[in-house]
Amino acid sequence: MVCKEQPSPELNEFPLVVTKFYQHILALVFAVEEINKNPNILSNVTLGFHIYDSYDDPKMTYHNTQDLLFNSHNFVPNYKCGIQENVIGVIGGLTAETSSTMADILGLYKIPQISYGSFQPELNDQLEFPSFYRMAPNEALQYQGILELLVYFRWKWVGLMAIDDEGGDHFLQTIEPMLLRNKICSAFIRQIRKDLHKVLDLQKVAETQKYLPAFAVSKADVIIIYGETSSISWLPYAIAGTRFFQELHPEYPEMVSAAKVWITTAQIEFTSCTLLKILDMDMEGLHGALSFAIHSSQPGGFKEFLQNVHPSWKKKDGFIKEFWKQAFSCKFPNDMEPIDTICTGEEMLESLPAPYFAMSMTGQSYAIYNAVRSLAHALHITYSSRASYRIIETGGRPYPWNVETWKLHSSLQMMSFNNSAGDEISFNKHGELVGGFDIRNLVTFPNGSYIRVKVGKLDPQAPPGKEFSINEDRIKWHWNLTQVPPLSVCNDNCHPGYRKLKKEGEKFCCYDCAPCQDGMFSNEIGRIYYMETCVTCPNDQYPNKDQDRCIPKIPNVLAFDDTLGIVLISFAVLLSLTTVLVLVIFIKCRNTAIVKANNRSLTYILLISLLLCFLCSLLFLGRPNEVTCLLRQTAFGIVFSVALSSILAKTISVVLAFMATKPGSRMRKWIGKRLAYSIVISSSSTQVGICILWLGTFPPFPDVDTDSMTEEIVLLCNEGSSIMFYCVLGYMGFLAILSFTVAFLARKLPDSFNEAKFITFSLLVFCSVWLSFVPTYLSTRGKYMVAVEIFSILASSAGLLGCIFSPKCYIIVMRPELNNKEQLMQRNK
Fold first, then answer.
1. 544 lies in the same domain as 596
2. Nearest to 168 by CA among 227, 117, 222
3. Is pLDDT of 402 > 70?
4. Of 77, 105, 434, 628, which alpha carbon lies 20 to 30 A from 416's?
5. How far apart are CA 208 and CA 377, in angstroms?
């Protein structure tokens, strides 16, 4: 049976009907008829129903709830007047206030109540409301979906609008911290009068204008609106009224376009009523809106069911005529209304635009459909569990077993079934539907109709990381948006090469743009999104001049084909050949006085070590590898130590030779090659020991230096241990200073064959080169550091070669007549 309880006269102040909600009634009727025709469920039971209209008024809700339970206009609790079938469950209501009002009464009698439009978090308490269920997932999941949507599109500056009630307060208190944690700012926050939808006549439309500055003037392109269908029905009027806003508010000379991206919650169903026709308004202001909706499907046969609906289809339908008049703007013959059009009853529901009536099942209608089937399945489970007790013989006549409503709760809590559309229906421990949300895009058409296209979903049962998904290509954005997807930021994005600087006294989403610091960059990371801060390039790259991208660093190495490398190679080869030439001369003239005068063996050792010094400089050229890194410093240190040890031995030999000439001197026994060789071997062995210790503990290895130079990456040999490297240099310096000291003291000894003065000058050159090497080496980078060391090796070795051997070669080659003992003795006299 379908009936309508008429409201009291004072509640019938607003005759306008939300025609789209009539589908809720039809979904209920469709579900009941589908169950009654199904032999597999409640085969011996016929479901019936009563429909009551609360008129969005708490008093009327209490009135109708008690009338439903007790069938009495006097409302005597626990007393039923007349014959009435037992109530096994209640489906309702659409709003949170209606649901909670009904739950206060129904909970006392443990009658299951399944809400199809309420998300009120207070009703989740199963201890306080054990009889309350809802055909909606947990609201926290919807908040997470809103956040995921904002993060996906990089929207940082959004407006928040919510109803001024407990639900709106809870929404704002929950969503704002979530936004802040994800670096999203609220451009404005507005709480709207809950009864604003009642201010819907031509004289009072201007009342909505005071809410316009919140979204029409804000730079936020994205606005999140929380509420219920009736409480935000003023929104299309407010959007349409923006064209009058500039005239009403001259203090805003440059009004921002009302083209926004509206994000609405699942409680909201886009509807319109007769006033839209009167004001010649439509839904195009909401074109491109993104809305969350409880996942829904289309049961088979529902569209055909709607096509059979007409004013006389059900005699007990107390809603059909009022709906028909409002939907088609007509009147029936006996109505006393100032309307010329007569309702013929042949009008087609398919001709109505979607804001007035939809031929596809809406999300709320789908919730009603599933609620009816849930109660039926719970009742079926209860009947099945008591199959042996269904019939009680009384006087030979069977009668059906009457179910107590409190027994349905265990069946509802454990219930899980697939409806005719193939969706699984079950409740969690809080009495909420186990499921997710669809993300739908509102697409409007010039004729005032619209469709809601599914563009994404939020599925908590999906694998981790895939709960949120969206198909951006299917989204139709508002026509007047200057950029799609919109940016929705407090400031325009900083251009590549710039960074954000926070504005004092403003929210962190508002900023100034400043150039990136040296060595950092910022650039485009998507179609329209830019980095918020400057970042450092990878180690092997550096920022370009505009600091908007990174480019690879050029390898910095002293290569063989480099100009500087060619010059150094040329000097090394030339000096090596010169050394070989000197060695050949000395070997060829080994029996001459000058060659024999200062220990030929030490001279040969010195010349060979100087040759190796020139050649070891070539190890420093080219790309470093493991072999060259191991040999570079160690070979250089050992060879130079041999050269310096030879010079020290030669100098000490001169001193001992002079002292041995004194009568009665005991130094004669020290004169000879044995002492010289001992000095060379012992001095060189110490350096060899240092190098072996170095290679055994922290050996050099190929490395790269990405920090020293901005635009180049230095390929080098890491010394492994700087201490060991400076120990090698320090020991060389010790030998050089020791040799220089001995040579300096012996420079004026009266001996014809005394070369101490030449050794003194050569070591002065040697020490000068290496003293200047250390600060120069530490102040250079890259290949120039290597070049400094090569130059120091060549210069110091050339100083030893030139200062010690050039005078002797001059005599041997240019003045051979002087290269005899008599001439040298004569020169000395």
1. no
2. 227
3. no
4. 105
5. 46
